[in-house]
Amino acid sequence: MTDNIAKITKILLWVLIALSMFYAIMLFVNTTEQDTKWIENALTFTTVLLVIAVASVIIFSIVNFILNLMSNPKKALLSLIPIIVLGGVFLFAYSAASDEVLYMPTYEGSDNVPGVLKWSGAGLITAYIFFGLAVLSILYVEIAKFFK
Which of 1, 69, 75, 97 is the most exposed place for a label (fewest CB within 10 A)? Predict the structure, then answer.
Protein backbone atom coordinates (compact mmCIF):
# COMPACT_ATOMS: atom_id res chain seq x y z
CA MET A 1 0.00 0.00 0.00
CA THR A 2 2.78 2.43 0.92
CA ASP A 3 4.68 1.65 -2.30
CA ASN A 4 1.57 2.42 -4.36
CA ILE A 5 1.12 5.75 -2.58
CA ALA A 6 4.78 6.58 -3.15
CA LYS A 7 4.49 5.76 -6.87
CA ILE A 8 1.31 7.79 -7.29
CA THR A 9 2.83 10.73 -5.41
CA LYS A 10 5.99 10.60 -7.53
CA ILE A 11 3.98 10.58 -10.75
CA LEU A 12 1.74 13.40 -9.52
CA LEU A 13 4.74 15.54 -8.58
CA TRP A 14 6.35 15.00 -11.99
CA VAL A 15 3.09 15.99 -13.68
CA LEU A 16 2.93 19.17 -11.57
CA ILE A 17 6.54 20.00 -12.45
CA ALA A 18 5.82 19.45 -16.15
CA LEU A 19 2.71 21.66 -15.98
CA SER A 20 4.64 24.35 -14.15
CA MET A 21 7.39 24.30 -16.77
CA PHE A 22 4.79 24.40 -19.55
CA TYR A 23 3.07 27.45 -18.07
CA ALA A 24 6.40 29.17 -17.41
CA ILE A 25 7.53 28.67 -21.01
CA MET A 26 4.17 29.67 -22.48
CA LEU A 27 4.06 32.71 -20.24
CA PHE A 28 7.24 34.07 -21.77
CA VAL A 29 6.67 32.90 -25.34
CA ASN A 30 3.00 33.69 -26.00
CA THR A 31 2.28 36.89 -24.15
CA THR A 32 1.66 40.19 -25.81
CA GLU A 33 -0.23 43.23 -24.65
CA GLN A 34 -3.33 42.02 -26.50
CA ASP A 35 -3.16 38.36 -25.48
CA THR A 36 -3.20 37.96 -21.70
CA LYS A 37 -4.78 34.51 -21.70
CA TRP A 38 -1.51 32.78 -20.76
CA ILE A 39 -0.90 35.18 -17.90
CA GLU A 40 -4.36 34.50 -16.49
CA ASN A 41 -3.90 30.73 -16.88
CA ALA A 42 -0.48 30.81 -15.21
CA LEU A 43 -1.83 32.88 -12.31
CA THR A 44 -4.77 30.51 -11.88
CA PHE A 45 -2.46 27.49 -11.92
CA THR A 46 -0.17 29.16 -9.36
CA THR A 47 -3.13 29.96 -7.14
CA VAL A 48 -4.34 26.35 -7.29
CA LEU A 49 -0.86 25.09 -6.34
CA LEU A 50 -0.69 27.58 -3.47
CA VAL A 51 -4.09 26.50 -2.14
CA ILE A 52 -3.06 22.84 -2.36
CA ALA A 53 0.17 23.54 -0.47
CA VAL A 54 -1.51 25.52 2.31
CA ALA A 55 -4.35 22.99 2.62
CA SER A 56 -1.81 20.15 2.81
CA VAL A 57 0.07 21.86 5.64
CA ILE A 58 -3.12 22.48 7.60
CA ILE A 59 -4.70 19.05 7.01
CA PHE A 60 -1.56 17.03 7.74
CA SER A 61 -0.80 19.12 10.83
CA ILE A 62 -4.29 18.51 12.20
CA VAL A 63 -4.12 14.77 11.40
CA ASN A 64 -0.68 14.58 13.03
CA PHE A 65 -2.04 16.45 16.06
CA ILE A 66 -4.96 14.03 16.45
CA LEU A 67 -2.74 10.96 16.08
CA ASN A 68 -0.20 12.30 18.56
CA LEU A 69 -2.91 13.37 20.99
CA MET A 70 -3.94 9.75 21.41
CA SER A 71 -0.42 8.42 21.98
CA ASN A 72 1.66 11.30 23.35
CA PRO A 73 -0.13 14.51 24.40
CA LYS A 74 3.10 16.50 24.85
CA LYS A 75 4.23 15.65 21.32
CA ALA A 76 0.78 16.62 20.05
CA LEU A 77 1.39 20.27 20.89
CA LEU A 78 4.60 20.23 18.85
CA SER A 79 2.66 19.04 15.81
CA LEU A 80 0.66 22.29 15.86
CA ILE A 81 3.80 24.37 15.24
CA PRO A 82 3.39 24.46 11.41
CA ILE A 83 -0.12 25.88 11.72
CA ILE A 84 1.00 28.42 14.32
CA VAL A 85 3.98 29.50 12.17
CA LEU A 86 1.81 29.78 9.04
CA GLY A 87 -0.78 31.84 10.91
CA GLY A 88 1.87 34.02 12.55
CA VAL A 89 3.64 34.77 9.29
CA PHE A 90 0.36 35.60 7.57
CA LEU A 91 -0.78 37.86 10.43
CA PHE A 92 2.57 39.67 10.28
CA ALA A 93 2.29 40.00 6.50
CA TYR A 94 -1.28 41.26 6.72
CA SER A 95 -0.36 43.88 9.29
CA ALA A 96 2.66 44.97 7.20
CA ALA A 97 0.72 45.20 3.92
CA SER A 98 -0.44 48.57 2.69
CA ASP A 99 -3.99 49.34 1.68
CA GLU A 100 -3.16 52.64 0.00
CA VAL A 101 -4.97 53.05 -3.31
CA LEU A 102 -2.55 53.14 -6.24
CA TYR A 103 -2.42 56.01 -8.69
CA MET A 104 -2.89 54.42 -12.11
CA PRO A 105 -4.32 56.88 -14.64
CA THR A 106 -4.88 54.33 -17.42
CA TYR A 107 -6.37 51.58 -15.21
CA GLU A 108 -10.16 51.32 -15.34
CA GLY A 109 -10.71 48.07 -13.42
CA SER A 110 -12.42 47.59 -10.09
CA ASP A 111 -9.56 45.95 -8.17
CA ASN A 112 -7.71 49.10 -7.09
CA VAL A 113 -9.49 49.25 -3.72
CA PRO A 114 -8.01 49.06 -0.21
CA GLY A 115 -9.37 45.58 0.61
CA VAL A 116 -7.98 43.88 -2.50
CA LEU A 117 -4.66 45.71 -2.17
CA LYS A 118 -4.30 44.71 1.49
CA TRP A 119 -4.91 41.00 0.75
CA SER A 120 -2.64 41.08 -2.31
CA GLY A 121 0.12 42.72 -0.31
CA ALA A 122 -0.27 40.19 2.49
CA GLY A 123 -0.02 37.33 0.01
CA LEU A 124 3.10 38.78 -1.58
CA ILE A 125 4.82 39.43 1.75
CA THR A 126 3.96 35.90 2.91
CA ALA A 127 5.39 34.45 -0.30
CA TYR A 128 8.57 36.54 0.11
CA ILE A 129 9.03 35.39 3.69
CA PHE A 130 8.58 31.71 2.88
CA PHE A 131 10.80 32.00 -0.20
CA GLY A 132 13.51 33.55 1.96
CA LEU A 133 13.11 30.83 4.58
CA ALA A 134 13.34 28.14 1.88
CA VAL A 135 16.56 29.64 0.49
CA LEU A 136 18.05 29.94 3.98
CA SER A 137 17.15 26.35 4.83
CA ILE A 138 18.70 25.09 1.59
CA LEU A 139 21.88 27.03 2.33
CA TYR A 140 21.95 25.74 5.91
CA VAL A 141 21.57 22.11 4.82
CA GLU A 142 24.28 22.40 2.18
CA ILE A 143 26.71 24.18 4.53
CA ALA A 144 26.00 21.67 7.30
CA LYS A 145 26.77 18.80 4.89
CA PHE A 146 30.07 20.45 4.03
CA PHE A 147 31.21 20.48 7.66
CA LYS A 148 30.18 16.88 8.40
Answer: 1
How many domains are there within the chain? 1
Tell me the whole-structure pTM to 2 decimals. Answer: 0.62
Helices within 30-113 (DSSP H only): 37-71, 73-78, 81-96
98 lies in some domain? yes
Query: Does 35 fall in a domain?
Result: no
Are 62 and 81 spatial neighbours (Cβ–Cβ below 8 Å)?
no
Angle at 26 between CA 24 and CA 32, to 5 degrees: 115
User: 99-129 pLDDT, tens per residue?
Assistant: 888 888 887 778 788 888 899 999 899 999 9
Tally Cβ neighbours within 10 Å of residue 36. Answer: 11
How far, rounded to the nearest angstrom, does the alpha carbon of residue 23 sit from its chain's CA centroid? 17
Residue type, 107: Y
